[in-house]
């Protein structure tokens, strides 16, 4: 029975990853088709339409998923997470009964929540990481004779990632009649990171006061780069504590899995009796609280 449980669990994990990857691929293909349609290319030249089911992430979940900077879109991550919960829960019910299904659902849900929590603020760090190069690009463009708006348009077109998307959105607002100050202030409200606030203040101050604007922007870029270096060093120094917390949190789960997989008596007690299920749920709850507590203690706000 333990071999069958291991095989089914492995199959459930693989199926969940495949579902998430398939949903992400479908969404990327749809995005390419939409861009081609906007460019005037007919849908017939891009192949047949792809039909799939994508669950829309709730707004309160979407904010956390976007902040975690996952490699897949928020809807794809939410769909994969829901599929993982369903597949693992049904597998546990078939293999070990309803009690094990409840425990498996709680474990997968908690694992996903901990993964997202461990990547909190990743989007902001990605944005700030691109700021020094963007500010240097604005300074170079201004040294060549471009105005502030022209320099920002040029940099926005060549900056990748979320920072480039935010800059392009701000400059599109300026093209639509909004003032540069209002557009950059709106960008700052959407991305309230310290580096973004500093960069926006430097750009707006130089646009109003004039003078050696390019030199000031280069100085701000150097300051942001130095701050990012210090923050990265602080996070690296705290990585050992975070790794120790992960090992301590996973050790009881590994021991419980080993005991259930090698001893049928322990498995029957933990998964098929009310007292055993109660002990298992209590242990998982205490382990989750301990993991959260250690994560909070090891967290460094750099």
Automatic annotation (TrEMBL):
It is a multi-pass membrane protein. Pfam families: T2SSF (PF00482). InterPro entries: T2SS_GspF_dom. GO terms for cellular component: plasma membrane. Coiled coil: none annotated. The keyword Cell membrane applies. Residues 138-258 form the Type II secretion system protein GspF domain. The chain crosses the membrane at residues 37-55, 100-117, 243-262, 274-294. Keywords: Cell membrane, Membrane, Transmembrane, Transmembrane helix. It is found in: Cell membrane. This is Type II secretion system protein GspF domain-containing protein.
